[in-house]
Amino acid sequence: MNSIRFPEGKTLDFVAVGRLCIDLNANEINRPMEDTVTFTKYVGGSPANICIGMARLGLKIGFVGKVADDQMGRFIVRYLEREGIGTDNVVTDRTGAVTGLAFTEIKSPTDCSILMYRDNAADLLLTAAEVREEVVAGAKLLLISGTALAKSPSREAVFQSLEYARRHGAVIAFDLDYRPYTWASEEETAAYYNLAAEKCDIVIGTREEFDMMERFEANTGHDDRVTAAKWFDYRAQIVIIKHGKDGSIAYAKDGSSHRAKSFKANVVKTFGAGDSYAAGFLYGLMQQWPIARSMEYGSAAAAIVVSSHSCSDAMPTKEQVDEFIRMSNAASPN
Amino acid sequence: MNSIRFPEGKTLDFVAVGRLCIDLNANEINRPMEDTVTFTKYVGGSPANICIGMARLGLKIGFVGKVADDQMGRFIVRYLEREGIGTDNVVTDRTGAVTGLAFTEIKSPTDCSILMYRDNAADLLLTAAEVREEVVAGAKLLLISGTALAKSPSREAVFQSLEYARRHGAVIAFDLDYRPYTWASEEETAAYYNLAAEKCDIVIGTREEFDMMERFEANTGHDDRVTAAKWFDYRAQIVIIKHGKDGSIAYAKDGSSHRAKSFKANVVKTFGAGDSYAAGFLYGLMQQWPIARSMEYGSAAAAIVVSSHSCSDAMPTKEQVDEFIRMSNAASPN
Amino acid sequence: MNSIRFPEGKTLDFVAVGRLCIDLNANEINRPMEDTVTFTKYVGGSPANICIGMARLGLKIGFVGKVADDQMGRFIVRYLEREGIGTDNVVTDRTGAVTGLAFTEIKSPTDCSILMYRDNAADLLLTAAEVREEVVAGAKLLLISGTALAKSPSREAVFQSLEYARRHGAVIAFDLDYRPYTWASEEETAAYYNLAAEKCDIVIGTREEFDMMERFEANTGHDDRVTAAKWFDYRAQIVIIKHGKDGSIAYAKDGSSHRAKSFKANVVKTFGAGDSYAAGFLYGLMQQWPIARSMEYGSAAAAIVVSSHSCSDAMPTKEQVDEFIRMSNAASPN
Amino acid sequence: MNSIRFPEGKTLDFVAVGRLCIDLNANEINRPMEDTVTFTKYVGGSPANICIGMARLGLKIGFVGKVADDQMGRFIVRYLEREGIGTDNVVTDRTGAVTGLAFTEIKSPTDCSILMYRDNAADLLLTAAEVREEVVAGAKLLLISGTALAKSPSREAVFQSLEYARRHGAVIAFDLDYRPYTWASEEETAAYYNLAAEKCDIVIGTREEFDMMERFEANTGHDDRVTAAKWFDYRAQIVIIKHGKDGSIAYAKDGSSHRAKSFKANVVKTFGAGDSYAAGFLYGLMQQWPIARSMEYGSAAAAIVVSSHSCSDAMPTKEQVDEFIRMSNAASPN
């Protein structure tokens, strides 16, 4: 049991709004990108990855987004459709925008970086008028992702989605997913992250992301509890603050706090850990599991993804997560 | 008595954030601007006008804004200082921006128009970091003006001001003051007007301005009562909807509604009517007068301004407004 | 006699391409603009002033340019038409651009400055396709002005005009008229000024303007003769280098050089001196007068304009210039 | 023998200025890009390919360009250096620009297309001041490429290079290489292509590229001879007009014209044909071969490249071209 009440009588479990892009993962790993020669193409973007993850876990999913009118855009839509994700509200740009790209570089399992192409990206051109109220109205849970706030008109599309979710009673989750590219300044980022977070039931981010949001505030000790408490004054019910390899902590409005169990993994790269964690965690909440169990489920999904070469393509099924947890617990009973 | 409780122990009555610009009023009136030859220079911009109006009525005022590093910018700062308005938080741009201009054309008392110069205007370059918390913290009443939401970084500066006002208990008034120039689209306008209005105690605008804010809503009958009710679900206590020469109506959160008495005036032009009305009305509220009396006071100030050639320069003193009301009531006792 | 051969059988004497804008001259002179209150509106822009000057001297003139779709733009077109200048190729912008403004400040006769409004100026939106070949083809003399090179698409319109002039045998004059506003960098300016000057028969500019064009060259001594010689390797026949109050010097391709006689004037301000000089000088050349006499005629026109409050409006007629020269020579026979 | 006289006493044979980018060639060929999964990374960009081609043929080469400060940029510089191409004047961007990308799609040997990423590309940020005069001064032959004219400041850098080449007596070749991306309009393209072509000794382009340059001219019959004749009025000595699979024709200033022999090839894709042709042709001219033999050498190089998967990497050595010609002539003696 957890305190989040998802609305009844909806046609979809989950709708995400935001970035749809392409990951180009270097096939040759454990070396700098200067020395890699071939790349494999995957669907990417944090909200896309989370949707794919939740679809693999068996939920009914829809996407609100925009793709380029090119081969990359069509590849993305086909992939989502093959995963059973509704693309009715995935709009095609007609202005000549391109698909955002992320070239990944894996120097070592712990030294990974991304080379982003975000100029004139189609996903940032989604307009408020293109968000279809009935799509958001049909969802139990709406996920917004911080990168979609980086520019107009996508920024307004996110706020319009939030308004529709409020109007129709959807639970709202905010995955901060802050990427400095495309933002004009940290001040600008802080402004819109705060305006959006005020309207959300669940806020998930790293300590650094919350610090960025607090740049005009007095939380100089970077105290997680202070960070979480601010949002309980608005609409939040759960705030999760991630501390990288030190794990994450969830605060609930009832005053409780929860730490996630972490799993041993044979790490190939760190990309995708956050997205698979979010997918597993939100899945758990929607099963009405307690927060701690939901976090554990997210951690297990993350452990599976970081052991693989891709993000989206590696998202596990329910059976895979359950089996992983069973095996892990058998190996190290505590 | 009205329902607004202004905080105690503040050093300023009123702080406005937003546009500071120059009006160039044609000296030759009742003809198109193609046939006018000389112009007189005045300080302009809706929040500047309201501040000047309230300063003339005897209140302690401060301004948060940005001016160009040129002769026009220095003229504005000197004028405000001569009126006793605090300019500690009027920042000077260093990027080569210009001062916004408004050339006024008075074809007839009822056919007036404005030719705006708003490209690269200094006032829209105010940043969130340039808003000084202690200035907003020191005010009983903060006024924000819609034009300052038209572009980044001024838009973020407004939201930062709202956050400081909330933090320090200031009453917040929002003068919608919608000008299509500089906005990318009406959708964008609607998004930020709604986000700002949610955080305000008093919202003042024309029917057309509220229609623009409701473009994604179902108020197809343009019903003032529906419009006002929406904001009472957020923080609003008073919503005023102006209907041009048909007068204005104020709704209060307690369910009451109030119509303003209007005064006969020897109209030269319509410019400045809204700003002088706002100055008089807010002044009244701060005296703890009832809403209706405050509205009447605003109407009297407006009647004085529309009888004159300028906006800012014609703002009346308390003695002038009182005398005007006395004379008007003597002339037409009702 | 001079070496320039103007083509026969043309319908117009002179066509200029470039800036059309508004001057707003402070009525209160000998003080900073912070202390001026009223302004008088005139047509402005260097090529516009030169056209008006040459029309007053009795030549047949056409203009190639673009104006804003507003009261200022209509004022400009009407003014040109009243002066008898052909406006068939003055296009009206339909994108919402504004009319460029120049507020003049006269602190003293020798301390004058200009506050420019050039953002989103209509004149810089003239396209190559809007330049009508038959208008340029009909002229004996084409004048281009450096400010029109400052931005695309106006920059391409200038080069297209140069191509039409070359194709139809018009003499081409280039008034450098360099204004730093709107140029991205001095390097960019140098690039296009040089490309344009290569195609011109007459080049007129200040020493500082030629220095800017030579930033990638070795003329470290700022030697006028070196400057002029460069252009004789291209198409130039006359190069005039102006040295402010030290007068100007003209170099001709035949190796001769000429200094202008200067006239005593009761100087009100320095604005407009260059434009009236150019008008008088080009007028003289078109009468087949020797270079020195043409320069003297330009100097006389300039002396008249600097004694007056405006630029365009003060351009003298032939009778006025002749009378001025007669009176000046009578006063100081040399 | 041909009519081009290359200067003596230079340290480099050839310097190119312009685009350096990355090709990402789909490994899975003969299918749409929606169905390709892996890509191989190569150095790309027309002038880069030509330089690599000429370096393989044994010439001394330098490059004037700009790369992004990222893994892609460093990969490009290293590749050039391994090929023996001088990178002293390859500047590294410090503004966060990216490396231009070209994803190639090979649906069939005759149906190939390219998906370009050109927003915020580093190569277009080369400035005139970054072009080192001594590098251009040291070359017998300068090549400019049309894509570098697409935007400021790269456009000005090209004109500055042309000026240095003129000053120091280098022969100048212009590979039109028109790509619609990044140009604001065809009018803008025509303007700068014409200004550049006026200054070149050798102009190489397709019929469609010359048509674009003639949009303000009367060559309605698209007559190659008319096209070529125009440039002989300026500085051109050779003009080559390419007609795709119908071959190409070269016109020389002496009135002669020459058609290239074409070779049978086992075509994998058409990319790179033009670049390898240009490399072989210019190589031939520099050997003082007759135009026809130089064209044949270019055709042979092109036949080798279109039979391979890449462009830059497949550029043949002198031995490979000689052998290819020998084998082809043996197979089909004519």
UniProtKB/TrEMBL annotation, chains A, B, C, D:
Gene3D superfamilies with a match to the protein in the record: 3.40.1190.20, putative 5-dehydro-2- deoxygluconokinase (2.20.150.10)
UniProt pathway: Polyol metabolism; myo-inositol degradation into acetyl-CoA; acetyl-CoA from myo-inositol: step 5/7
Carbohydrate kinase PfkB domain: residues covered: 14-317
SUPFAM superfamilies, per the entry: Ribokinase-like
InterPro entries xrefs: Carboh/pur_kinase_PfkB_CS, DKG_kinase_firmi, Myo_inos_IolC, Myo_inos_IolC-like_sf, PfkB_Carbo_kinase, PfkB_dom, Ribokinase-like
The reaction(s) this protein catalyses: 5-dehydro-2-deoxy-D-gluconate + ATP = 6-phospho-5-dehydro-2-deoxy-D-gluconate + ADP + H(+)
GO biological process, one term: inositol catabolic process
Top-level lineage group: Bacteria
Key words, A-Z: ATP-binding, Kinase, Nucleotide-binding, Transferase
Protein function: Catalyzes the phosphorylation of 5-dehydro-2-deoxy-D-gluconate (2-deoxy-5-keto-D-gluconate or DKG) to 6-phospho-5-dehydro-2-deoxy-D-gluconate (DKGP).
The family this protein is said to belong to: Belongs to the carbohydrate kinase PfkB family.
Name this polypeptide is given: 5-dehydro-2-deoxygluconokinase
Species this protein is from: Paenibacillus arenilitoris
Gene, per the UniProt record: iolC
